Amino acid sequence: MTDNITSVGADSRPGVSALKGRTGAGTPAETRGKTTIADGVVAKIAGMAAREVPGIHNLGAGMARAFGAVRERVPGGGGSVTQGVKVEVGERQAAVDLDVVVEYGVSIVDVAGDVRTNVISAVERMTGLEVVEVNIAVDDVHLPDEEEESEPGEGRVR
């Protein structure tokens, strides 16, 4: 029987990490075998965790948000959870870059700290990867009187 190995091994597919468990006759069944985690999974987890934080209006830089607004208007297009999220996943670690838009009036420093805490907690809890950094770029501040680009029924004519 070998020691408990919670490492991420190299997989033959790009953008995929593999978690290996213990092996041997005396080990529990749930730890035998290999689990692979794609980069897109880590990006979705980070995107959802960032959006849960109060004070975050949206994710994505200006052009990404513009394309996202167009994509939402196309039937079946929907919004992307990974908009504004970039990840690098290594063998045992992950790094996350986020582009965010904050609400006017909130403390950007406090919101950024809350986002880091939430993203690190969610990614580490769900994947077992160590998050080494979460870089946050605040691209815009959403003002209360700004119209939403995607509000239906707000046309120029009636």
- Identify low-pLDDT runs: 1-10
Q: Strand-and-helix sequence, N→C?
A: EEEHEHEEHE
Number of strands: 7
The structural class is: alpha+beta
Q: Strand fraction band?
A: 25-35%
Task: Give the N-to-C terminal Cα separation.
Answer: 73 Å
What is the overall shape? elongated
Mean pLDDT reading: 80
Query: What is the C-alpha radius of gyration, as a whole number of Å?
Result: 19 Å
- Helix share bin: 25-40%
Number of helices, where a helix is a run of at least 4 consecutive DSSP H or I residues: 3
Largest sheet: 4 strands, mixed
Structural overview:
This protein is 28% helix and 30% strand. The chain has helices spanning 39-51, 62-73, 108-127, and strands at residues 7-10, 16-20, 34-38, 56-59, 85-89, 93-103, 130-142. Strands 4, 5, 6 and 7 form a four-stranded mixed sheet that branches. The chain has a three-stranded antiparallel sheet with strand order 1-2-3. Mean pLDDT is 80; it is low at 1-10.
